[in-house]
Protein 1
Amino acid sequence: MNYLHNITPLSSQIATWLSRAIPKTSILAVEEFSAALGTTTGEDRSENQDRVVAARYVDPNRRGSSFLLFALCDGMGGMLDGAKCAEIALSVVLESLIAGSNTDDSQSRIRNAIFSANAAVNQRYNGRGGTTLSAVLINEQGSVIAVSIGDSRIYDAPNWKRIRQISVDDTIAGELQRLRGIKPTDSSVDYLDRIAQYVGLGTGIEPRFYILRSDMGKLAFLLTSDGAHLLPPQTFEQVIINAGTPREIVRRLITSSLWYGGRDNASVIAVSGEVSSFKSALQSTTGAEVLELWDSTGNSAFFVESMRLRTFAPHAVFETTKKSESHGKHLSPPSKYEKRHVPSKRYERKTYAARKKEAAENKKNKGKTQTELAIEVVSVARKKGDDEGKNSGSSS
């Protein structure tokens, strides 16, 4: 299968939203899912290259397509544009999950999404930039799939009483433990922590899949970047067990990582809830195809069907003339896949006319909610498509 990824309006908007400036330390509780997301830059780093996201996609018109996704990416330090790699990976994974919603196999669905993200990052950086990924996907039937690539971790934590790492670190040390049962203890040997595979490496990656146990129909799990789980194991477990709620777990782990020196970015996603409540959260309330996102500072909604109707310049999301806010360096040049698009004079005139029309529509629609407007846009687009179909049928 060809996983080379064409940038779409949806993945562009997601990446742009993920790239906005955030505080040095931020935590957000999502009460609807009994979840919390948090991240900190730490004390020694000038840039936070971690990205955390909770996503809900609901499509009332395609049975089995809706999902919840909790995902964490840790951009690779020492390589190119770690934060940008994390943003590309998450945006492509989400867009690919939506595009692949015609399959009932959740594992194949997220596997293909990760391969698409790997191709997109590699296409951009040619193996010189990358990111880890740990994620949990829940579909509307209540099926739960956990997956990781790199050294970001997934912990199973039934009722927050017993914490068990279920993911395997894709490091040399992790491979030794997995293949030979050897657990290296000499932390002075730096090559043991080297990443064996990551999103953006190119051909040959193999995502690892895991089973999350439900206790009497209830799930509880953690996603962490290495800055959070490098605490001493006993301290890490005690912090979680004595916290009580997802928000408090995230707050204490983030704070503890800073107390232990804050040498790296640290990020945590904590989730605890009934499987039935996750299924209920995927029931449509607007009648529209909607993707909702949460990170450590806020949330946003994207009305997917209306975005499919928009034109898009493929290079826009990876604009290369913009300087990095954190370092002031130019990003690397566009790859051969990023074709430049220069609008014609006619296109510009149409755009100007469209803007005038849009101003008039805005005046007319003043006072309507975002949801009402989005549903109206979708309805108009559907009606236009039906009319065109009737006209073509009558002309034939």
Protein 2
Amino acid sequence: MSRKLKNEFKQAQQEQAANAEREQGENKPSKALLVARRILVGVFIEESDIKKWVPFTIYVFVLCIILIFNYNSANKVAIEINETKRNIKELRFDYITTKTKLTRLTERSEVVRRAKELELEEMITPPLKIYINDGN
């Protein structure tokens, strides 16, 4: 009978241990919850592994800021270049137009036409050179 009692007692202990493990598994928080709890409490900062990564993290953060600044500067320069190119095209068109008008206005036929409007006549004889003797 004592063997029977011992076996029953062992079996009861095993059942209790199995039930306790099941209860712990059910009540055991998830790994993500444990990590979140450590972050909120601030325990992760106290660990030496995290402290040695702080300078590297700051370095990466500074590099990211420099990269963003550089990208924005490059965009501004590209926009200015495009605006300058557009202005150059407009000025070139103005230059060509003005040059064409000037060429047309200085043609001999245009000068004669405008002179007639002012009641001037074209000279038929070529102009004469006037020489002055100094007494020599």
Protein 3
Amino acid sequence: MSSQSDRTGMDESFIAKPLGRRQIDQAYPLICAISPGLAVERWRAFAAALLDRNGQSALPAGIMTVQNANGYIHGLFSYAVEEDLRHGPALVVDNFVVMDLFDLGGAAEVLLRAMEALAARLGCTAIHTNLPEAYAILTGAENPVMACFRGQGHRMETMRLCKPLGGANDNGSRDGDAAGCAGSDGGEAAATGRTPSRPLRHND
């Protein structure tokens, strides 16, 4: 079992940084892990729109990553500030994904700390995280990501259901459109499956 000092040392090899425009394509394989079949053009447009909105809107949005010392992306989440009926201004997190062969929990913890710091800086009173259902299905040692969330005070609050309309598939494109990462299973750390996501709510 790793000691606390071992975990701290591993955490220090990761740093949380906003996604840069030149890194949009680099982040695409991670997005494929949670959205198999998503066209690269769809990801590019989505990411560019969030980066354009950051700092230019009354309700900020963006993409946060966790990277190693060499600039390789090991995880990310997209976010937007929204007004919630019960909690007021909330940081709404989507597309949370981490992938690391040796320290999945360490990468996740760095992202979670960045998430909380971001929420505080933006004046939010809660964090609402929509996770792929695979994260909720796995238990115990199989699910270090969920353990990190619960350890940081996040709890299950609601369930979100999704029904694609007008012939659109789960990736927001029409059936038959080109898919840039069809067949990707996301590797050992992926929360795959285009299924209803379960929001985790962290309320201050």
